[in-house]
Recover the amino acids of this structure.
């Protein structure tokens, strides 16, 4: 695949190395001449010195034949513009943007960016997983953002313990898709009764995640 | 609602406010307000980064009829304009863009862009050569 990486900071640098090691054709675009020279010294002639937000630069580096454009500069707005221009003007089928402000995820999806990666959100959800056992923990956001896959462990004291799925007070836009019981995945029916130590995987609309929390959490 | 209290932003804000419109101006530096706005500026000043949706909401984007974004960054203006339009449904959104090619690209995507470079070029050309066809020139500089 031909992959264009815009932004030669730490993320762009390590991403480029990783992709090269897998045999992809990679070009990294970096506007700071010193940084561009450093990367060239370290990994070879895979750097284009220029501003990846500029139409002309994207034209020069053959963006139209790129399979993927990844924008990983430290500025959300630059990553947005790069991906939008790549997609709309050059017809790139897959664009990936890094964001710092996790609140930008929704609008980026709405503006046509295929994948949005927020390290802030990833780290936050790892911390949540550490501290929130027994609660509803976000696992992943589905493409286009508004749906979340979450998991919840059922404790003995949970209001959902020993109740059938159909009798749970679930928020209207949520669905229990899988129950993990003694290490095995069970596809639940309405009559499936949740037991303590079960882990429930559910799909839920992002705004209703807190309501789902109430379904499973032990009230203290 | 005006985003960016530079020379242009402050002048647009003061002009419209003087004409009786309800104007809010947003900037992330308090100093910009002191330096650029009349002490009697009748509008509202909101201190904060307009890339932050909470700041836009605090400035009343949900009630705004018009949002003009005039910060120094083309990409910042493009992003703020799209957030205002797509998320907050502001009926009229204008973005200042200095790079003519970028202005043209985003105009095609439906953003009203004010292409400062082409406008200046036009004015200069007319001042030098007398009344010429603006649009033909703007087009030419975009295709360049």
């Amino acid at each position: 695949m031909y992959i264009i990486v815009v932004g030669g900071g730490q993320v762009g640098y390590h991403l480029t190395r990783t992709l090269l090691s897998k045999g992809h054709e990679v070009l990294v675009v970096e506007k700071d001449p010193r940084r561009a020279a450093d990367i060239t010294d370290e990994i070879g002639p895979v750097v284009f010195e220029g501003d990846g937000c500029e139409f002309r630069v994207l034209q020069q580096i053959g963006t139209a034949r790129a399979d993927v454009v990844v924008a990983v500069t430290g500025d959300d707005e630059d990553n947005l513009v790069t991906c939008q221009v790549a997609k709309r003007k050059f017809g790139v089928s897959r664009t990936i943007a890094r964001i710092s402000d996790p609140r930008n995820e929704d609008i980026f999806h709405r503006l046509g960016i295929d994948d949005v990666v927020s390290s802030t959100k990833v780290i936050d959800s790892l911390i949540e997983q550490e501290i929130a056992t027994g609660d509803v923990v976000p696992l992943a956001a589905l493409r286009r953002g508004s749906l979340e896959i979450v998991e919840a462990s059922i404790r003995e004291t949970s209001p959902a313990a020993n109740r059938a799925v159909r009798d749970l007070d679930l928020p209207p836009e949520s669905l229990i898709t899988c129950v993990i019981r003694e290490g095995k995945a069970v596809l639940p029916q309405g009559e499936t009764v949740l037991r303590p130590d079960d882990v429930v995987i559910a799909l839920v609309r992002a705004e209703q995640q807190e309501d789902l929390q109430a379904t499973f959490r032990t009230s203290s | 609602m005006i985003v960016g209290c530079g020379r242009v932003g402050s002048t647009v804000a003061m002009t419209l406010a003087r004409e009786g419109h309800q104007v809010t101006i947003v900037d992330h530096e308090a100093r910009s307000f002191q330096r650029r706005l009349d002490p009697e500026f009748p509008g509202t000043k909101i201190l904060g980064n307009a890339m932050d949706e909470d700041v836009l909401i605090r400035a009343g984007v949900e009630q705004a009829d018009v949002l003009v974004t005039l910060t120094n960054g083309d990409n910042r203006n493009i992003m703020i304009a799209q957030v205002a339009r797509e998320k907050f449904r502001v009926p009229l959104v204008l973005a200042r863009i200095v790079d003519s090619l970028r202005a043209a690209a985003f105009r095609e995507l439906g953003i009203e862009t004010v292409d400062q470079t082409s406008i200046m070029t036009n004015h200069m050309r007319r001042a030098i050569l007398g009344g010429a066809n603006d649009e033909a020139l703007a087009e030419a500089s975009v295709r360049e």
Notes: The domain at 132-216 of chain A is CATH 3.30.70.1450 (Alpha-Beta Plaits). Helices of chain A lie at 10-21, 33-43, 55-60, 76-90, 104-110, 119-131, 209-216. The first strand of chain A starts at residue 2 and ends at 6. Chain A has a mean pLDDT of 89.
